[in-house]
Amino acid sequence: MAVLLLGLVIFLGTHSLRMAAPRMREGVLAQHGRAAWMVPYTLSSILGLALIVWGYGLARQAPLVLYTPPVGLRHAALLVMLPVFPLLIAAYVPSRIRATLGHPMLIATVLWGLAHLLANGGLADLFLFGGFALWAAADWASAARRPADTAPAAAPSVRNDAIAVIGGLVLYAAFLGGLHRVITGVPLL
């Protein structure tokens, strides 16, 4: 469990710098340039993610079960996951979805975490999925308080909405069709 927790601290801590120390990023960028920020940020993110994957795998070998979800909650988790992939894609294309929601990736992360907590009842699951859901909710609230980005953005389009929704549903179908098991080793039901 210690490896998982260390990974979460490193990964989520790195991704929380904008919330915890908003001027730090701008200061490093202004004084030392983009690479001085991105290289350590990227390396710590990769390290944190690797430790999360390894630590979660270790924790699953001797799970500490907090609760056993009924089958109905596993089906509910599939329903909660339905908008996650369209929201993830909408975060990267200039869409009306992104313009309306502001931070679709954070919303997707909250839903992803909650869905997985519905379907999994171990302590490692609570730390992993609950940790990400809480972090995303906090970042979402923090982002709402930050000044809006003044950089010109591409105009949102209905075409990009369609790309986000259709592409997201195709990805969702792929996960239902077995991609989840291929990537994680865990069947959906």
From TrEMBL:
Entry annotated with the keyword Membrane: yes
Main location group: membrane
Transmembrane segments: 36-59, 71-93, 163-183
Keyword Transmembrane helix assigned: yes
Keyword line: Membrane, Transmembrane, Transmembrane helix
Domain of life: Bacteria
Membrane topology: Multi-pass membrane protein
NnrU domain: residues covered: 3-187
Coiled coil: none
Subcellular location: Membrane
InterPro entries cross-referenced by the UniProt entry: NnrU_dom (IPR009915)
Protein name: NnrU family protein
Natural source organism: Chelativorans intermedius
